[in-house]
Amino acid sequence: MQPRVTIADGSLEGCTDNGVSRFLGIPFAAPPVGPLRWRAPEPPEAWVGTRDASEFGYSAPQAPVGGLQKLIGISGGPTSEDCLFVNVWTPSVDEARRPVLFWIHGGANTLGSGAQPRINGEHLARRGDVVVVTFNYRLGALGFLHAPELGASGNEALLDQVAALRWVQQNIAAFGGDPDNITAFGQSAGGFDLVSLMAMPAAAGLFHKAGPMSGSLGMSRSPDQAALATAALADHLGGVGKMRDADADDILEWQLSAPYGYGAVQDGEVIREPIAETIAVGTRTRGMPLLIGTCEHESALWTAIGSGAQDMDLAQVRQRLAKIGVGDVDAVLDAYGDRPPVELLTAVMTDRTFRLPAIRMADLHRAHTPAVWSYLFDYRSPALDGKLGSVHSLDIPFAFGTLTAEGMGEFCGQGPAVEELSGQIMDMWISFARNGSPMHSGLPDWPFYGDARETLRLGLEPHIEPDPLSAQRTVWL
Q1: Catalytic site residue 146?
Q2: Is 454 tagged catalytic?
Q3: pLDDT tens track for 207-219
Q4: Which of 81, 122, 298, 343 is catalytic?
Q5: Torsion angles phi and psi, residue 46, rounded to 5
Q6: What angle do CA 226, 230, 234 make, to 5 degrees?
Q7: Could you say which of 5, 29, 192, 409 is the most buried, measured as most Cβ atoms within 10 Å of its Cβ?
Q8: Cβ–Cβ contacts within 10 Å for residue 23, how many?
């Protein structure tokens, strides 16, 4: 007999495999289509009878993936604007009130979904006796378009995330989860978005611990910056008045050729103050445990193949860095020492985009909350003859225990040592969710991140290192 639950909107029938029940494709908001496009999410409609929850719902509209995106496992399945669905894995439908791990997927806020095989919640749920939740949110221009004339703050995708968290608060007890013990964690854009949620009044109190991976401060935009994309899209579609009725495929086609990024907008209402200032004061996050980290070679995802970076000489690296606004290029490159140009570019871009913002985030949060732990993931992918190193998103299948998911064997490697590392990382997140501390018997004694910048080197030989890569950090901070 398949597992059933009853939540506020109706009854659900899931399925059980290997001792874990899953309930997939549950609507947590009304379809954001027609007059609801570019509006804050509305509550879902209740249904009559029992809804089949054995299959994922549609993913948000996005480009098909290929190349390295396929290698790292970011594919999401069929797409539709009707995409606001949540997925739950639980060891048992009972009243146990287990810790909840709420995952925010990455993908530059333009790709991804809660249905990726690499974020299957079954393994975490079974290993840790926890409830795991994934979900979709609107992506790209459909989720982050700042258009006050349409009633759009530019933060509709973040409000989707708030709506998913609120759904968890209201319903997760029916799945054996504890609404008073929710850990929000996410990677890349999911990490950047999570830090935005930490600054949003609408998200206050909806989660209790935060775990941004390879994403922290840095993807937010001013209203003026965000308005540039709105003006360009309106021009493409023939005016603001035609935007709400435009075909989603036309919007996506424009988005793929338009040079705009997507992230939080400090609109004065959904996000009232600069995110970093809110984090520094601890307005909504004082006392919230924080587990934050990055991978050592994040930007190899963009420099290892296909970008021309492999063929750059030192002069071209200098030009690239100057073009993107790196100040004293000579001083920066001196701090990174003598290494091949592509490795220099990878290291500098990794620090500028990921590692240094995470350090800054940890510094801001620890000013009012001691419970901060920092890690640096340094396990190297064997793919592409090792060119990727400890690349962006490599830690995801280790955290979810999905090393055997499609393609992950090539990306992550195989063998007892790899499986042991995955177990250590899974236990790190399970312990953090359960106890508010990532420490467990498989890791060395891990102090709070303090004045010595104590950081866990997380790899085949985990160890604590004060201020890793300090020479590179000090040229920036």
Answers
A1: no
A2: no
A3: 999 999 999 999 8
A4: 298
A5: -70, 160
A6: 170
A7: 192
A8: 26
